[in-house]
Write a structure and sequence with these properties.
Blueprint: E1 13-15, E2 27-29, E3 35-39, E4 42-47, E5 52-58, E6 64-69, E7 85-90, E8 94-99, E9 104-110, E10 118-121, E11 131-136, E12 140-145, E13 151-156, E14 161-166, E15 174-178, E16 181-185, E17 199-203, H1 226-233, E18 238-239, E19 255-258, E20 265-269, E21 273-278, E22 283-289, E23 297-302, E24 308-313, E25 318-323, H2 329-334, E26 345-350, E27 362-367, E28 374-379, E29 384-393, E30 407-408, E31 412-413, E32 416-417, H3 430-433, E33 452-463, E34 472-475, E35 490-494, E36 499-504, E37 509-515, E38 521-526, E39 531-537, E40 548-554, E41 560-562, E42 574-579, E43 585-590, E44 596-599, E45 604-608, E46 618-625, H4 627-645, H5 648-653, H6 656-674, E47 678-684, E48 690-696, E49 699-706, E50 715-721, E51 724-729, E52 733-738, E53 743-748, E54 754-759, E55 767-772, E56 775-780, E57 785-791, E58 800-807, E59 810-815, E60 820-824, H7 851-862, H8 883-894, H9 898-904, H10 911-922, H11 925-946, H12 979-996, H13 1000-1012, H14 1016-1024, H15 1033-1045, H16 1050-1065, H17 1069-1078, H18 1082-1091, H19 1095-1105, H20 1108-1123, ...
Antiparallel strand pairs: 1-60, 2-3, 3-4, 4-5, 6-7, 7-8, 8-9, 10-11, 11-12, 12-13, 14-15, 15-16, 16-17, 17-18, 19-20, 20-21, 21-22, 23-24, 24-25, 25-26, 27-28, 28-29, 29-33, 30-33, 31-32, 34-35, 35-36, 36-37, 38-39, 39-40, 40-41, 42-43, 43-44, 44-45, 46-47, 47-48, 48-49, 50-51, 51-52, 52-53, ...
């Protein structure tokens, strides 16, 4: 007989609890939209939208100290799909790179045995995305290949390295925070370790720095605020000389980070200040200070989309501070010199603090890198609090003393101005909530077009963990055929604070939390699927007596009552409770008191054993009972009674089945109350003697006594199932009794005290789970063999505190690290495949799909040109894929919010906006960056074209000039911004530097910057400020004279240029560039800078000094340099070309790099914006074929071609540009490989001759077009209507009459190839193709009420058509 095993589908998972102190910095929010958090040696993957733990990764043996998601800054395709890749480092120095979806490790890396200090994936290389930089204590940085685990290079430094930060604008620059100061590295490259040891600078404590030598404020001036007071304390923050020990606290600095919102700025975090540094001056230009009564900082995260800071305080409060505009119109008018005093970050919003205790402290904050308007806070007790920033329109209460300028919402959505009735999501991201910060010299936009907004934090999710261990766990009764309809796999967890948590193990979510006891829960026993008994014991008093609490809890209602009534005070502690197999009886075992026997059904005490009753060390109920025989006896008695009451005549007329049904119902109602089955239990005493007790109703009988086994020590636990009885002792011995064969077998495990043994559920399942002090084992009692084992220090680093079975093949373990793990029988790992989970709430994460499915989803959301309306139902398109894959894609679509669905289905949403929105949805960093810049400049050049900016042949201005616009590209894009906006920002910055200068070195740098910017008058003033005792006094005076007397005459310019050239040749590059800028030779200066490898400085100088044509030449050379194999930053080069309006070149690069989807969509956007036209070449063959085709139609049918038709045939607009054709054809092939045939057919039809072969392949799958008519027959027109296909002669009166009968406004018809047909008034195209024999689709339009037919070729609009028309697509074959 094959044993029947009861099992349900439960995933291996881990329920986590409190965090270890080493987990403090182990949290990261990735571009993929998920949060990774370290919890002891495990890693949780959390979906912040639904607040669900969707994966737990377990492979580390030590506490996890760092986690870092890989960046998505690369183009995704089938060979480089979307992937969930995570790197984690632990306290033992091991780094693991994970495939999060499958829960497996890509590779494991080990260099040293000390905790990993910092991790970061490199993101700037187009070629390699597997490079992982790690800080290995004490002073090593190592570059690893994260895919293979290969060490690429290693570099050591003099000081202990605490953390590092990369410059987001120049990845060759990085800063190391060491125990003594900062080390700046400017030659970082993945190819080799940094050649130098870096520039070492020391950090002076803000409180120890000398004060500014500034004049006292005027009496009428307002008193400085707290921030200004703190700023006045700071003079020289960074110095090359090591400060004295008395003046500095070296480890005061908590964090350093480059600002991603503007170049060459860094923040330093102190407990009570945030210092903003300008790295060109090495000087503080802004301070965020906390008042004396304020709560200190613990962390700060700078934003990229806006110049804003998220700050975490010691009380768990998160604050948002936004940089104040550097000028206000009234201030600037009153005193221009006071327009730039300092960078001020105003408090704009803050969330509620948490209650901080000894064991509850805020650990870390992370923000969403895609939207930057959501924050997650991890707390030491395991909670994850999810805060979302919300924008509310309306004016704030005016407070003149606050100095706060209002925040305005932007007038655009997804990079484009809002249409009149267009839908938008205001809280999509930080840059859609608040507009750009104004800079000096910039006029504010009209207030009529903007709305003032207020920002508020809203708690949108809370993920709670388990409380502090120890735990007592018990799984509910197993699944059977009788309870299968209403069974839930519930796990009851008793905690140290007296509460009982009930978890549903299908979802891993908390089902109910019940506050049952006032002290630690010691044990739980279920008495039904919906109720349980739990007991707790208080701390013993001086006499050793405790207060026992035994509670009965009803789960649906939450009602609980004291099961033992008034008993329980001042008595020995309860050791264990055991419920019988049929849930009839309960045994309560005490430490120094005889056991009690209770009837669970009535709640009555059946027997309290005598005082001389043996001390119980272990007890277990037998699974055997006499319930079945009792039921049979009662059924027989009921049947006999029923037959006696029915006469023979009546019995013949009554169906026997009806009698049995009545008897069954009656017997069930009575026997359920009356029957008390006989049950047995066994227990052992301190001598190891086994006692057998029988209980039936109120009767308790002593049974046989079995003497102790000499090989066994004191028995600590018993398990009984079927004919097998297992005993475990305190010495680590297991004794297996075969009751049927009357045999016993002892096995010494040498594992120490056997604390618990439990049999697995399921008939015939003889697996046994054994718990020791140092781990657990699974045994097969049939063969008396160990199946699997786990031991602390060998397999795991945690100690098991309780065990149970949750199904017939999965165990559940509670451990001292505060976690509860559901494991397979092998007890190896709790990781599982994420895409196989049955989640309570659907999760939007395209990364969980197979690569083909994820790209299908992306293509489906990006463009649906085959349909008149946008749909969110994948079943409505022609998609050849398995139903299972379709279902998964539809689940992803359904998981989108209603706001997102309505915006995606909005017909006003442009292609550029859709591309930006989808890239945000997918967390695609590369796509988002590309489409942000492309959308801005496509619209800018399209606007310039409409305003009659000179263009040649439909292309943007060749000189690279950028049209003026009010909506500038954000300054976080640096040199990609418009030149005018970039110049204003740099002037504003140098004015701020000038105000903050505090030494001669600062003054010299400011003067140099002013000379480069062309601000000669102000530069001369600074040069003349040099004191006479300064060694540079003479040189500065001469330079001031030179600047003021310079002329544009030929000889002087030649001399200065010669001197500048010589200086550059002799290593004085900066001085030579200055001289060239003085004589307006900035273009030459840029060329010299590029020759000497100073590409960033050259681009900066080009943006601030050159005219558009010259600047374009410099930036184009920079783009060529970025494309070189040594640099390999083609993605950045394309962004530079986009800012210059070189859209055709960008399209070519996208296509050559095989970015087919981005290339086709970009070209389509260019065509829609009118900045690119398909008129550069003429396909003569196409024109000839079309001409012959029109002649053929005219001669064959006598149809008079209109002038419009003839013009359309010969017009050059019918020809497709080579690039456009190639890009569209390749995108069509990509869509075909994904299974989207309609999209493939559309793009192939628009690709011209490049798409002919693909079109033929597409429709061969449907049998191909019908064969043409024989040579002796006239061509026929095939019409597919509601009544089926029908062949009709073209041009006959009969045909025209029938067509008039079928005529209906706006009803599309399709030809035999089943191609979608759209209205002539839309911008969609109807498909056409050529074969060896001419085969052209022509649409024949019949106007309602008009007898004159109108014809037009496919793809070209017919101007004379009106809306009341219908179309018939037909084909003519053989010319």
């Amino acid at each position: 007989m094959i044993p029947y095993t009861v099992n349900i589908k439960l995933a291996a998972r881990t329920l986590t609890g409190t965090l270890n102190l080493q987990n403090k910095t182990a949290v990261d929010w990735g571009w993929q939209g998920l949060i990774a958090q370290g919890c002891h040696s495990s890693i949780l993957i959390i979906d912040p939208k639904t607040t669900q733990t969707i994966q737990v990764l377990e492979r580390h043996k030590a506490n996890v100290v760092k986690v870092k998601w890989s960046r998505e800054n690369y183009h995704h395709n089938l060979s480089s799909p979307y992937s969930l890749r995570l790197a984690s480092g632990d306290a033992s120095g091991k780094i693991i790179v994970w495939d999060v979806v499958s829960g497996t490790a890509h590779c494991e890396i080990q260099e040293h045995s000390k905790p990993i200090q910092d991790l970061e994936w490199l993101w700037n290389q187009d070629a390699s995305r597997d490079l992982l930089l790690a800080v290995h204590p004490p002073n090593y940085i190592v570059l690893w290949n994260g895919d293979t685990g290969t060490k690429l290079w290693k570099k050591s430094y003099a000081e202990n390295i605490l953390s590092f930060s990369f410059d987001p604008f120049d990845p060759s620059n990085m800063a190391l925070l060491t125990s003594e100061g900062i080390v700046f590295i400017n030659d970082f490259t993945p190819a080799k370790p940094p050649g130098s040891t870096g520039k070492k600078v020391y950090i002076a404590s803000p409180h120890a720095s000398p004060a500014h030598n500034k004049p006292a404020p005027a009496p009428t001036a307002p008193a400085p605020t707290g921030a200004k007071k703190a700023l006045n304390k700071v003079k020289v923050l960074i110095t090359n000389e090591k400060p004295t020990a008395e003046a500095v606290t070296l480890n005061d600095c908590l964090q350093l980070s480059y600002l991603p919102s503007k170049r060459n700025h860094m923040l330093l975090l102190y407990p009570r200040e945030i210092l903003i540094l300008d790295l060109e001056l090495s000087q503080t230009v802004g301070v965020v200070a906390i008042e004396r009564s304020g709560v200190p900082f613990t962390q700060v995260i700078p934003c990229a989309q806006r110049d804003a800071l998220y700050c975490l305080h010691e009380n768990g409060c998160i604050t948002l501070r936004v940089c104040r505009s550097t000028t206000a119109p009234d201030e600037a008018a009153a005193d221009p010199e006071q327009s730039a005093q300092e960078l001020v970050y105003d408090l704009r919003s803050q969330c509620d603090a948490i209650r901080v205790t000894k064991t509850v402290r805020p650990y870390r904050m992370v923000i969403c890198p895609v939207s930057e308007n959501s924050a997650a806070l991890t707390v030491s007790d395991g909670r994850v609090m999810l805060w979302e920033l919300k924008a509310h329109t309306g004016r704030a209460p005016t407070n003149p003393g606050s100095g706060l300028s209002p925040l305005y919402s932007p007038v655009s959505f997804c990079g484009a101005p809002l249409a009149h009735n267009q839908k938008k999501i205001q809280d999509l991201s930080l840059n859609t909530m608040i507009g750009q910060t104004l800079i000096a010299g910039e006029a504010p936009p009209p207030s009529s077009s903007q709305q003032e907004v207020q920002l508020k934090f809203l708690l949108t999710g809370l993920l709670s963990g388990l409380p502090l261990p120890p735990f007592a766990i018990r799984m509910c009764p197993p699944l059977t055929t009788k309870n299968i309809n209403h069974y839930q796999p519930l796990l009851a967890v008793g905690t140290s604070n007296g509460s009982v948590l009930v978890y549903n193990l299908t979802s891993g979510l908390l089902h109910k939390e019940l506050s049952v006891h006032s002290c630690e829960v010691r044990g739980i026993e279920w008495v039904s699927l919906t109720s349980f008994l739990s007991f707790a014991t208080s701390t013993p008093n001086n006499m050793g007596m405790v207060r026992n609490e035994l509670q009965h809890v009803d789960l649906p209602t939450g009602r609980c009552f004291a099961f033992r009534g008034e008993r329980g005070t001042d008595e020995p502690a309860i050791e264990m409770i055991k419920v019988s197999h049929l849930k009839q009886y309960l045994v309560v075992v005490f430490r120094d008191k005889p056991l009690e026997l209770w009837d669970i059904r009535t709640g009555t005490l059946l027997r309290e054993m005598a005082k001389n009753f043996p001390t119980v060390t272990a007890l277990e109920w037998s699974p055997s009972h006499n319930l079945k025989s009792l039921k049979k006896k009662q059924m027989a008695a009921r049947e006999a009674m029923a037959r006696q009451t029915v006469s023979d005549a009546e019995q013949s007329s009554v169906e026997s089945s009806v009698i049995s049904m009545l008897q069954d119902a009656e017997s069930k109602s009575e026997t359920s109350q009356a029957i008390s089955a006989r049950e047995h239990f066994v227990f052992t005493d301190t001598d190891g003697q086994v006692y057998h007790i029988t209980v039936e109703g109120n009767t308790v009988k002593d049974g046989a006594r079995i003497p102790p086994d000499g090989s066994m020590g004191s028995i600590g636990c018993i398990a009984w199932k079927g004919d097998t009885l297992v005993l475990g002792d305190v010495d680590g011995n297991l004794n297996f009794w075969d009751l049927k064969a009357r045999l016993s077998r002892g096995i010494p495990t040498h594992r120490g005290w056997v604390k618990k043994v439990r049999f697995a559920p399921g008939k015939g399942n003889q697996k046994l789970l054994v718990m020791y002090t140092d781990g657990a084992e699974v045994w097969d009692t049939k063969d008396v063999q160990m199946v699997s084992s786990m031991r602390i220090g060998r397999n795991v680093n945690y100690r098991v505190v309780d065990i149970d079975w949750c199904t017939s093949d999965k165990v559940v373990l509670a451990s001292d690290d505060g976690c509860i793990r559901v494991l397979e029988m092998a007890m190896k790992s709790a990781s599982y495949r994420m895409d196989e989970q049955d989640l309570t709430d659907p999760v939007w994460c395209p990364y969980l799909l197979l690569p083909r499915a994820s790209f299908t989803l992306k293509a489906f959301l990006l463009l649906q040109p085959w349909s008149g309306t946008f749909t969110m139902d994948i079943s409505q398109v022609d998609y050849n894929e398995k139903d299972e894959i379709k279902g998964l894609i539809q689940e992803q679509l359904n998981s989108l919010s209603n706001d997102m669905k309505s915006v995606l289905q909005d017909p006003e949403l442009s292609l550029l906006q859709r591309c930006l929105l989808v890239s945000r949805l997918f967390g695609d960093e590369s796509d988002l960056q590309f489409w942000t810049v492309a959308s801005h400049y496509l619209q800018s050049f399209a606007q310039a074209r409409q305003l009659s900016v000179p263009t040649a042949q439909g292309q943007p201005p060749s000189d690279g000039s950028q049209p003026a616009c009010h909506n500038y590209l954000d300054i976080c894009h640096d040199t990609l911004c418009e030149s005018s906006y970039f110049q204003k920002f740099q002037l504003d910055r140098v004015h701020l530097q000038e105000v903050k200068r505090s030494s001669y070195e600062h003054t010299k740098k400011c003067a140099d910057q002013l000379l480069l910017l062309g601000q000669t008058d102000r530069a001369v003033q600074l040069l003349l400020e040099t004191s006479a005792d300064n060694s540079s006094y003479y040189c500065d005076s001469l330079k001031a004279c030179l600047v003021t007397t310079i002329t544009s005459s030929g000889p002087s310019q030649s001399t200065i240029k010669l001197v500048a050239t010589n200086m550059i040749a002799n290593g004085k590059l900066a001085e030579g560039v200055q001289l060239l800028c003085l004589i307006d030779k900035a273009a030459d200066a840029c060329r010299y800078l590029q020759t000497y490898g100073e590409w960033n400085r050259a681009s900066w100088l080009a943006k601030v000094r050159l005219n558009p044509a010259e600047s374009s030449d410099v930036l184009k050379r920079w783009a060529e340099h970025l494309c070189s194999p040594q640099v390999n930053q083609k993605s950045k080069a394309m962004l530079v070309l986009l800012s210059l309006g070189c859209f055709h070149k960008v399209g070519e690069m996208l296509h050559s790099m095989r970015y087919f989807d981005r290339a086709a969509l970009f070209i389509e956007a260019c065509l829609k914006c009118g900045v690119m036209e398909a008129n550069d070449s003429t396909n003569i063959l196409l024109s000839v074929l079309l001409y012959r085709w029109t002649v053929y139609l005219s001669g064959l049918h006598g149809v008079v071609l209109t002038t419009t038709l003839s013009a359309l045939v010969l017009d050059s607009h019918a020809c497709v540009h080579k690039l456009i054709g190639a890009a569209f054809a390749d995108y069509a092939r990509l869509l075909r490989s994904l299974g989207l045939r309609e999209g493939a057919a559309l793009w192939a039809s628009r690709a011209g001759s490049a798409g002919e072969e693909l079109m033929e392949e597409l429709f061969q799958g449907e049998g191909g077009p019908p064969e043409g008519p024989p040579a002796d027959q006239e061509p026929t027109l095939g019409i597919e209507g509601s009544g089926g296909d029908e062949d009709r002669k073209f041009g006959s009166e009969e045909e025209e009459e029938e067509e008039e009968e079928e005529c209906h406004p706006d009803v599309p018809k399709v030809c035999h190839w089943n191609l979608p047909v759209s209205c002539v008034h839309s911008d969609h195209h109807i498909f056409w193709m050529f074969k060896k024999e001419l085969c052209v689709c022509v649409w024949y339009v019949h106007v309602c009420g008009c007898k004159q037919p109108h014809e037009g070729l496919i793809g070209f609009p017919v101007p004379s058509m009106n809306k009341e028309c219908y179309m018939v697509c037909f084909k003519m074959i053989s010319l």
